[in-house]
Amino acid sequence: QSTPATIDLFGRFDRFNFFFEAVVNTTTVAPGTVEPTAEGRQSSGFPFVAPGFPQPSFVIDDVHFHSCPTTPACPDSKTKFYQPDGTCNNLVNFLSGSANTPLTRLLPPEYADKKGSPRISSGGGALPSARVISTTMQDDVIQRSGKFTQEVPFWGQFIVHDMVSTPSSSRPSGVNCRCGSTDPACFNIPIGFSDFQFIQERKTCLPVVRSQPIQDLHCSSAVRQQLNEITSFIDGSTLYGSDKSRLDELKDSESNIGSMKIGKLSPHGFVPSHSPILPLGNQVSDALHRSMACPAAVHKPRNAPCFVAGDIRANENQVLSSHHTLFLRLHNNIVQDLSQKNRHWGADKLFETARSIVAALNQVVTYGQFLPVVLGPTYMKRFGLELNKEGYYHGYDASYDATVANSFATAAFRFGHTLVPETLTRYSPHWSPTGPSLKLRDSFFNNEPLLSTQFGGANSVLRGTTQKSSLTFDTTFAADMHNNLFAPPGRIGHDLLAINIQRGRDHGLPGYNHFRVLAGLKKARKFSDFVEIPFSRRNTLQKLYKNRVDDVDLYIGGLSESSVSGGIVGPTMAYIIGHQFRALKRGDRFWFENGDANTVFTPGQLKTLRKMSLSKLICDQMGDTRTMSPNPFLQPTVAGNARKPCTSFSSLDLNQWKDGRANALDKETDTEFTPWFALTTEGGKKIEARELLDFLLLNRPDDVCPRVLGSEKRSVFGKNQIRFKCSPGTIKGSPYPPADVKMGVWTDWEDSSTPTSHNGDDDESRGKSHKCKGPIAIQVQTTKGVPARETGEVFRKHSPFAGFLCRKQDQQDGRCLDYKVRYLCKEIVKGPISDGNPTTAPPKTKPTAPSGFKWSPWVSFSNPAFGDGDREFIYLVYGRTGFCATPTKMEARDVVTKQDSRLTGDTFQIFSPRQGLYCANAAQSNFVCHDYEVRYLCKEDSK
Ligand code: HEM
Ligand SMILES: [Ca+2]
After folding, report:
1. pLDDT tens digits along 565-603
2. pLDDT recorded at residue 15
3. From residue 106, how far is each of 216, 228, 505, 930, 931 by CA, in Å?
């Protein structure tokens, strides 16, 4: 006999809201009755759908199915900064990275029925129970890191709550996943009789509600997808939310300087806090309060209202709430300071300016301090994640899609769960423990320690996490994560390791072995091929998964790997994480370092932002903090990381935001220079600066600005060169196509000349006319991949029309680097262009299908110029007329030239009738795939 394990949920917030034995009928609950009852029990679910969220549009498996998002109308004039919901950031694909769109996929899903039922074993049966895997993979002893602090997991949790939030299934009558339930919205984890959970509380299952099923971006519901409710961009949505109505409520409507609401206490007998705390549920609408995940049944000793914030999970643990507090204070301190400096600024301008700074500082800490510790130097470099030391970043590329990937959210970035410690210790300003240590389980949804200044509130919480060691990266979890997650007082709870494995199956994530291949590791045929996994763990996995390498779940396989050098996670997770953070950097038009047309900050502002660190933020915002280690992710005992006075860290110089600053005398930092140009013609004749400028404005408009403020000259080998001074942001100068042009087709990279064979010059101006019709943009890089403009060399030609030419005599060292060139063209044609009549190769005549079979129509969903490759996965056509689920053959050809895929020279990562086609740009010698269309051969009567 089993104890019913019941989940009460409605809406999107149940992930943090499961509890046991409290059967509640959500439909009868009146609004406003969500306050916990005296027994500490939850009296209702959260029957509320936040305003601004699209309502579910239809029902599948009796569960609301989220409709596919409609493309917003983005204003013609370019939006200047992040919209609350993240739309209109990418001007080619308005929805890229926005809230309420599907998670993307790095690999096609693997569902048992190809549509949406959880993955099963390659041998056909069920996969081993996620709970059995979880318990078997635990070591007897929990290990603490000798190097990393608890700030690593907790900053990770805070920043990922800016990137992704995946809701569970819901329906008006609730979803009740008691053990034995046959509700298709449930995917419970079975518990065996020898399990601690059964022995203690006779539990026969751990309830898991499946994620809300949604349509894909093509509005097809043939294959189950999952939703991201928040903006993928690192835009401070933790603080500001992901929709305008939420943001409006979180703003302090009484403030005329653009402040955010702060907590007003204290009817509950808490000592009021002197430093601001997060606003409380009773200060906002019922609807907003109820949107917060804050289950009373878990731990609400004194009936305090929950905090409200931009992200619904802000109450999940006190360290998380402390990070929210830090940035709330930061916002309010910035607007306060700026209102003094710019007395004429209105509340909106103050607010938006502070918001831009908060978003930038989240990026600074994440890329500047956090990711290097997690990924190590190799992966930082491989994915181009390092911040520039100076100057603007010119890597913005509208073809990158910032949207969070399913495997990142559901597996790779959950790596932090294994680092979370068993206890939390608060530290005084003098770095000694203060107040009682809290067991992790007692910190879940317990905001009490932050409500008062006793023991230092959030300040001592963050001093604690930057001092104490995290657990090590492995498959062993703190007991409170592994058995007591969200446990009601006196009870045991859930198992997050088991949930994570189960969630991967729920989402149809392919197994670990497939992701190994994606990450550049060897595809395993037997367990001993998993050489990245230590021997004993590999053995345990082999037994658990009954010798089937393809069955191993991504999460447990990834966690089992040894760390990459200089980092924490193993190579498979490092790949997925690096890939994601690259997309979030290159694919974000408002990335804080962006130059070009998308500049958010002046050079002076950029400079002061770059010098900021998490240490300084904690120093400044966590009131009584006097000293801090320079890198809060490393223990103070690590060489070079001893605590230093807060005054020794650079502070944020808000004078850089003072109006009139750009006209101030400090011109050096507030102007930008064009590249250097030769003041001679190609024939060697001298020309005047004015003449040159006219030439450049016509021929190389991206390299100069329309209004020149001044110039500077120098002499190279006795010949004069000049560069022009422009106001910040007015030199377009991107090696990538501007975001708002209609995308064309890229040519292959060409490297027709090398400096040695041409006497030290590099001339890439020939040849291109044979292919590119209607050139839009040129991209030039050294053969090692450095953008031409970042080399400091001087070019004679650099335009989509004239091509590219580097002359050795213009260079200070007398020689050119070796460059490669490609063009973005309206059309690519074969052979020389003859009077506007492209001689496109005629499409090959179709081979007819063998009798009893038929070919599907040709389809192309993805364009390799838009993303990191061409993805023509079969699941995209499931359910469409003319296609079938199990084709016997697949063909692919270039969309434009109709050239057969076998003749293009591309290599394919996936090419099979069962999965479709995947061509990774990075795997091609010229770093870009052809754009393919595919078709499938189906049995005549098949579907
Ligand atoms: C006390 C600490 C934490 C607790 C109690 C916690 C709990 C949870 C829970 C209950 C879920 C939902 C699981 C599901 O139903 O699928 C979740 C999701 C997740 N967690 Fe944690 N977590 C903690 C810390 C962290 C850390 C340190 C990281 C990373 C560094 C992290 C990353 C994630 C990610 C990426 C997700 C998926 C988010 C989504 O797609 O909605 N968490 N966590
Ligand atoms: Ca965000």
Report:
1. 999 999 999 999 999 999 999 999 999 998 765 678 988
2. 64
3. 14, 15, 15, 18, 17
At 273, is the pLDDT very low, low, confident or very high (cuts 50, 70, 90)? low
User: How is residue 615 annotated by DSSP?
Assistant: H
* Ligand 1 midpoint to CA 541 (Å): 24
Encode 853-869: b = buried (16+ Cβ within 10 Å), e = exposed: bbbbebbbbbbbbbbbb
Other beta carbons within 10 angstroms of residue 784's beta carbon come to 8
Q: How far is the CA of 417 from the centre of ligand 1 (A)?
A: 7
3-state secondary structure of 729: coil
Instruction: Confirm if 271 and 450 have CB atoms less than 8 A apart.
Output: no
Q: Does residue 167 have its Cβ closer than 6 Å to ligand 1? A: no
CA–CA distance, 408 with 423 (Å, rounded to integer): 27
Strands 189-190 and 677-678: unpaired
- For residue 903, the tally of other CB atoms under 10 A from its CB is 11
Confirm or reject: Cβ of 421 under 6 Å from ligand 1: no
Q: C-alpha angle with apex 601: 596 to 607, nearest 5 degrees?
A: 110
Distance of CA 25 to the CA centre of its chain: 37
Distance CA 590, CA 476 (A): 39
Instruction: Note whether 213 and 60 are within 8 A (CB).
Output: yes
Among the residue ranges 53-62, 89-98, 429-438, the one predicted with the least confidence is 53-62
Q: Higher confidence at residue 708 or residue 22?
A: 708
170 pLDDT band (50/70/90 cuts)?
A: confident
Residue 925 confidence (pLDDT) = 65
Among 508, 502, 515, which residue's Cα sits nearest to residue 571? 515
Looking at the CA of 242, which ligand is closest?
A: 2
User: What tokens does 668 get?
Assistant: 């050096």
Cβ-contact 471, 419 below 8 angstroms: yes
Neighbours of 689 (CB within 10 A): 15
Name residue 827's beta-bridge partners: 773
| Amino acid in position 88 | C
How many CB atoms neighbour CB 264 within 10 A?
12
Structure tokens at 574: 């490092």
Give me the pLDDT at residue 142, please.
Answer: 93
User: From CA 118, how far away is CA 509, in angstroms rounded?
Assistant: 9
Ligand 2 centre distance from Cα of residue 406 (Å): 16
Contact partners, residue 758, CB within 8 Å, separation at least 6: none
Binding residues for heme b: 417
Q: What is the pLDDT of residue 268?
A: 55
Q: What is the DSSP letter of 414?
A: G
Q: What is the position in ligand 1's atom list of the atom closest to the CA of 209?
A: 15
pTM > 0.90: no
Q: Say whether pLDDT at 920 is over 70.
A: yes
How many whole angstroms separate alpha carbon 481 and alpha carbon 504?
A: 18
pLDDT per residue as tens digits for the range 410-464: 999 999 999 999 999 999 999 999 999 999 998 988 888 888 778 899 999 999 9
- Structure-model confidence comparison of residues 713 and 58, the more confident one: 713
Section 500-518 average pLDDT: 96
798 in catalytic set: no
| Of the candidates 404, 728, 708, 789, the residue with the CA atom closest to the CA atom of residue 598 | 728
User: Residue 374: CB within 6 Å of ligand 1?
Assistant: no
